[in-house]
Write a structure and sequence with these properties.
The complex is a heterodimer.
Chain A: H1 2-12, H2 15-33, H3 39-46, H4 55-80, H5 89-100, H6 105-138, H7 142-159, H8 164-179, E1 181-182, E2 189-190, H9 204-223, H10 242-247, H11 249-264, H12 270-284, H13 297-320, H14 326-337, H15 346-349, H16 351-375, H17 379-383, H18 390-406, H19 410-427, H20 432-454, H21 462-465, H22 467-498
Antiparallel strand pairs in A: 1-2
Helix pairs in contact in A: 1-16, 2-4, 2-16, 3-4, 3-9, 4-5, 4-6, 4-13, 4-14, 4-16, 5-6, 5-13, 6-11, 6-13, 6-16, 7-20, 7-22, 8-20, 9-18, 9-19, 11-12, 11-13, 12-13, 18-19
Chain B: H1 8-28, H2 43-61, H3 74-96, H4 99-118, H5 124-149, H6 158-163
The chains are: A mainly alpha, B mainly alpha.
């Protein structure tokens, strides 16, 4: 293990490595801070470029962007009361109250140190747990693997809190779209309708560019959201919040574990963990009446939980090849584009890829700490930039990125059509997460289902006669049933109360 | 409040039943696998279509309330169709002429539109000049990064190939 960590550090210590890490951290903080945009957006834009990069450095760059944007999300929440990312919504409740009282430095300093309290222990846990989980994953056969993918998809649909039916509609769409091209077992042509461009299927990068970049910019233009001026807010230099840390030690520990655990579960991530950590710690706090009016514990809780989720989310992606959120889907896409396949075999075949993720997260958190601590007085200017000027450039980069994948103009049409599909999905409230997650896992899912049936004497019964497979299926169905029954109970209770 | 019969969910339900029906038909036309026990290339799309039909039926018979997320006023609709036309126009233009020629035009148009909404007080002449300058700078940066540094070869469109 230490050998790989040292090798990863060596790769990052090169001039290119440092440039990628610093550039990624800066860009991540910047995009994370801007309401409307996000780190996911900049990662989507850079995704096509990673095809031409060294895979180790591409992953390091992505990790720096991810850490930077997760940390930058709180800046808008604290200074403007507008969260930069959905994970920073809970930070707004208390963080912005400090700004209104004329003290934005205290919550900003707390968010900066929260990076350490969340990311570092999360990475250490991920290092040990991913190894253990991968050892378990290696023993899984195709029945168990297919059942596990089903369970992950059920968790994403069930736990995201959106309509189950709409979630499954997204899954259905993704299954059909993933079938276009050739089938993964026999490489037979499927749903190409005689169009040559469809032979290789729809590249996932183009779909993400359409779904996340082109669609977001389009809706920003349609809604004409205005930048709020923050230049009048005076922010002084970073102050080490030693006293606040001592007073909130329990809060930090609880929030970290909440963040790491929720980050581990597919489909939840930062937005949920930050709110759960906030409400849990509020109920335990001695000064709960101050929460929501400017309590520093109310800044620690969501911030530590969000950052704790970074390590947690990496575990299933590395060990089992199951991405828990869109960001992990992007990491997987970077690996897949270099013929590196996340999953149980990753630790054995490409351990350097795994350790670069841990090391880069560690190094990125240090860079982000330095960047945020030094640049704190500039934050108001940072988020008041007329970032409408960024949008046209994002559109141009999206088109170029979409073209780069297959060097074919047909790929541009795929990106634009996916943008339209995303708009249609928005119109009908179909959540994008089950769709994109099913799409990226589609080949693996189909391959495992078919391999399982081919190698079995029991046919489909194998899914329920094998204990591990049965457990995954029961958990998946259980989550779906609970999520169907709970709202019905709530509705009937509400109806009774009204009567 | 009484629910409209043709609510969003019901429309979606019918649409996905039709789409799934079409793909079931296409799946059944796929050749069977010669591997022993292999359910063949049609099994996976059939699972997807089955899921969609089930969801479609639920949406048709038990639709939820209409969301408000995508409701647009007249101006927003105008901007929506303008941007969509730009996206499709760019794809068509790239195919016909090539990305090298079309991308700066798209960049200019989109920048102009965004500057109109973010700086409405600017005069048209100043806006045109600022947008032009912005387009030149951004395009130059993008060109250097993608075409020179990353060595992306940008093909000409079919019309340019035909003419020259």
């Amino acid at each position: 293990m230490w050998q790989y960590i040292l090798e990863s550090l060596q790769s990052l210590a090169s001039l290119t490595g440092i440039l990628y890490m610093v550039g990624g951290a800066l860009l991540g903080v910047f995009f994370g801070a801007l309401p409307g945009l996000s780190g996911g957006m900049v990662m989507t834009l850079i995704l096509p470029v990673t095809y031409k990069m060294d895979p180790i450095l591409a992953l390091a760059l992505f990790m720096a962007l991810h850490v930077g944007s997760t940390c930058g999300g709180a800046i808008g929440s604290i200074l403007l009361g507008i969260p930069g990312t959905s994970s920073s919504i809970a930070t707004t409740w208390d963080g912005y109250e400090f700004t209104k009282k004329g003290d934005p430095v205290t919550p900003l300093s707390v968010t900066v140190v929260s990076n350490f309290f969340g990311i570092l222990p999360g990475i250490i846990i991920a290092m040990f747990l991913a190894k253990w989980l991968a050892d378990f994953g290696v023993k899984l056969g195709p029945f168990e693997y297919a059942a596990m993918i089903f369970c992950a998809l059920a968790l994403v649909i069930g736990l995201s809190g959106k309509s189950l039916v709409k979630g499954f509609v997204g899954v259905g769409f993704a299954v059909i779209l993933s079938c276009v091209g050739t089938d993964p077992v026999l490489s037979k042509e499927r749903f190409t309708f005689g169009v040559n461009g469809l032979w290789s299927g729809f590249p996932v990068v183009n779909m993400m560019l359409g779904l996340f970049a082109a669609k977001i910019i389009m809706m920003e233009y349609v809604r004409q959201s205005k930048t709020k001026d923050a230049t009048k807010i005076k922010v002084e230099r970073f102050r080490w919040p030693g006293k606040a840390i001592r007073e909130n030690l329990l809060n930090i520990i609880i929030s970290f574990f909440i963040g790491a655990f929720i980050g581990f579960l597919p489909g939840l991530g930062g937005p949920t963990s930050s709110v759960v950590a906030y409400t849990t710690n509020k109920s335990l706090a001695k000064d709960k009446e101050n929460w929501g009016k400017g309590a520093i514990g109310g800044v620690f809780a969501p911030e530590v939980a969000t950052k704790g989720g970074i390590g947690g989310a990496m575990i299933p992606m590395i060990a089992l090849g199951i991405p828990g959120d869109i960001i992990m889907v992007q990491f997987m896409t970077v690996m897949e584009s270099h013929e590196v396949h996340p999953g149980p075999g990753l630790m054995l075949d490409n351990p350097e890829m795994v350790y670069i993720l841990y090391t880069a997260a560690f190094v990125a958190s240090i860079f982000v700490f330095i960047v945020e601590a030094l640049a704190m007085p500039l934050f108001p200017k940072f988020i008041s930039l007329p970032y409408h000027y960024l949008y046209p450039a994002i559109i141009a980069i999206s088109f170029l990125g979409a073209y780069m994948i297959l060097s074919d103009y047909f790929s541009l049409l795929v990106a634009v059509m996916t943008c339209v599909l995303g708009l249609v999905m928005d119109n009908f409230d179909i959540p994008p997460m089950p769709f994109i997650m099913t799409y990226i896992l589609a080949n693996l899912f189909e391959k495992n289902i078919r391999q399982a049936i081919v190698g079995s004497t029991n046919g489909y019964l194998g899914f329920i006669t094998r204990p591990v497979s049965l457990i995954f299926i029961v958990v998946g169905i259980g989550v779906l049933i609970v999520q169907t029954i709970l709202p019905a109970i709530k509705r009937s209770k509400a109806a009774k109360a009204q009567a | 409040m009484e629910k409209k019969f043709w609510c969003k969910d019901r429309k979606l339900g019918i649409a996905i039943i039709l789409i799934a029906g079409f793909f079931i038909w296409r799946s059944l036309l796929l050749p069977a696998s010669k591997l022993y026990h292999d359910p063949g290339p049609s099994i996976y799309p059939l699972i997807g279509c089955g899921t969609m039909i089930l969801c479609g039926l639920i949406l048709v018979f038990k639709p939820g309330p209409d969301g408000t997320r995508m409701k647009m006023n007249k101006d927003e609709k105008k901007r929506f169709w303008t941007m969509l036309a730009i996206y499709f126009g760019t794809v068509l233009g790239c195919w016909a002429l090539g990305m090298m020629y079309v991308l700066p035009i798209t960049l200019f148009i989109v920048s102009y539109l965004f500057s109109k909404s973010s700086r409405p007080d600017m005069t048209t002449k100043k806006r045109l000049l600022t947008t032009l300058l912005y387009t030149v700078i951004i395009y130059a940066v993008i060109y250097v990064v993608y075409v020179i540094v990353l060595d992306v070869s940008v093909k000409n469109g079919v019309l340019i190939d035909l003419i020259f």
